[in-house]
Specification:
341 residues; alpha/beta; Diaminopimelate Epimerase, Chain A, domain 1; four-stranded mixed beta sheet; 11 helices; 6 strands; rod-shaped
Length: 341
């Protein structure tokens, strides 16, 4: 649903932005948005977006099990049949336990309280599947009070029943599997005696096992369900949102400081390059006076020209070796002063 709303919002927002993209781009390049530093606004926006991602649309955990399903699962940990207090006596419990033996089949007989209404009137099937979430390695039979059919049975398969170890598939025990035992028990079972249902179901189970040519799997111990996770408290949400906001703002502040330092370094480097170009031009302008002087009139002038040449070579060497610009500039200024004498 969130994605749908985002698409709808984009349909109304993107066209105007594209139409005025030049103005939008000019505004985005401003150092301040809404009177605040651009990096601060970006940090807040990203923090809000991350907060919505983490807390605005929380991941739905598994549906909590109903008290009836939990009680049935607990009762089935010690045997193949669970009889809830107040369950109608429509099944011979001892006979059913004897028939099932240690096969991976469990029967839950719930009380006569009507189940909560469910989709398409399948509240009995929903309860069966809820119990099968815990008794995941078994075929599950439930007897419960349905709103439409009264106290009736439902059949389902645990998700881990068919596996590589027993060579069976869950699809082998679906609705098509129930056709044969249902045809058989309809002549034997009554409203007050539903034991034949389970007997015919077990016979059909053994026939399917023989058809698959595998060993009869044995019922495993039903593990208790994992405890439900604690709900996230308001204080935890507020603290987490605050942490996300601060982290986002701090990140953009660091990026802003990094950009300023990089720009300052680039400007300083650009200034240094400019000064070196100017110094190179000044050295070139002195080359003709220093390297090709006029004929000296006396020994003092000859000595002065030799000193100029020596110092010129030293400045040129230091400049070529990329010495400190300030030092080269100072030596070059002194050399220019000597040339003007």
């Amino acid at each position: 649903m969130t994605a749908v709303w985002l698409v709808i919002a984009a349909m109304f927002i993107v066209p105007p932005l594209w139409k005025h993209r030049v103005k939008v781009w000019a505004y985005l390049r401003r150092p301040k948005w809404l009177g605040l530093p651009r990096w601060l606004v970006l940090g807040v926006v990203v923090g809000v977006a991350l907060g919505y991602v983490f807390f605005g649309n929380p991941v739905q955990g598994p549906k909590p099990l109903s008290p009836k399903a939990l009680a049935a699962a607990e009762g089935l940990r010690t045997g193949s049949v669970y009889v809830a207090p107040g369950a109608p006596p429509v099944v011979d419990v001892e006979r059913v336990r004897q028939v099932i033996g240690d096969r991976p089949i469990v029967v839950a007989m719930l009380d006569s309280t009507p189940l909560p209404p469910a989709r398409m009137g399948l509240e009995g099937q929903d309860m069966c599947e809820e119990i099968a979430e815990i008794a995941a390695t078994n075929l599950v039979i439930t007897f419960a009070m349905e709103n439409k059919d009264g106290y009736d049975s439902s059949y389902c398969v645990g998700k881990q029943f068919g596996n590589a170890h027993n060579g069976l598939k869950n699809s082998d025990f679906g609705f098509s599997f129930l056709v044969a035992p249902e045809q058989a028990w309809q002549y034997r079972a009554t409203e007050t005696n539903k034991t034949p249902e389970i007997e015919e179901f077990v016979l059909a189970f053994d026939a399917k096992i023989a058809e698959k040519n595998v060993s009869i799997p044995r019922r495993a111990v039903i593990q208790p369900p994992a405890p439900a996770p604690d709900p996230v408290q308001t204080r935890q949400i507020v603290t987490s949102l605050g942490g996300i906001m601060l982290a986002s703002v701090a990140l953009f502040a660091l990026l802003h400081v990094g950009a300023l330092l990089w720009r300052r370094r680039a400007d300083r480097q650009s200034g240094m390059d400019t000064r070196r170009i100017e110094i190179d031009a000044r050295i070139s302008s002195l080359s003709d006076d220093v390297l090709h002087p006029r004929r000296p009139h006396d020994a003092a002038e000859a000595e002065h020209q030799a000193e100029l040449a020596r110092r010129y070579v030293l400045v040129l060497k230091e400049f070529s070796d990329r010495g400190p610009v300030s030092e080269v500039d100072r030596e070059l200024s002194s050399l220019e002063e000597m040339v003007r004498r």
